[in-house]
Specification:
Elements lengths: L1 H13 L2 E4 L2 E6 L4 E8 L4 E4 L1 H14 L4 E4 L4 E8 L2 E14 L3 H6 L6
Parallel strand pairs: 1-4
Antiparallel strand pairs: 2-3, 3-7, 5-7, 6-7
Length: 114
């Protein structure tokens, strides 16, 4: 009987939802696409704060000279660690489209003539 409770508790804990903070990864300044990603272990559900993700993407876009970022497409799930046919870890990538031209773009490209 104790074994059944132990298995039930282990199953419930392994399937819990985890808060994830996506980190900026390789994006494209020319195309204006910022990418954020995070890892998800098996039997784990990821919960992402959309405000924090939007803020991180907007910050990346602003560094490139754009004014803001908007969600683009669906999340991309790729297997980052596998053992045979079993995927042990997924990487989820969120894409954001950079829009608008900020003044930093003009100031950064400004040439000083004396």
């Amino acid at each position: 009987m104790k074994t059944i409770y132990f298995v039930l508790v282990a199953a419930l804990l392994s399937g819990c939802t985890m808060n994830k903070t996506p980190q900026p990864v390789k994006g494209s300044e020319v195309v204006g696409v910022a990418r954020l990603s995070f890892d998800v272990a098996p039997l784990q559900r990821a919960k992402v704060d959309t405000y924090v993700a939007q803020s991180a993407a907007s910050h990346q876009c602003q560094q490139w000279g754009y004014t803001s970022a908007f969600p683009y497409g669906e999340p991309i799930r790729t297997c980052s660690l596998s053992s045979g046919a079993l995927c042990l870890n997924h990487t989820v990538t969120l894409e954001y489209q950079c829009r608008g031209i900020g003044m930093e773009k003009y100031l950064r490209d400004e040439i000083v003539v004396q």
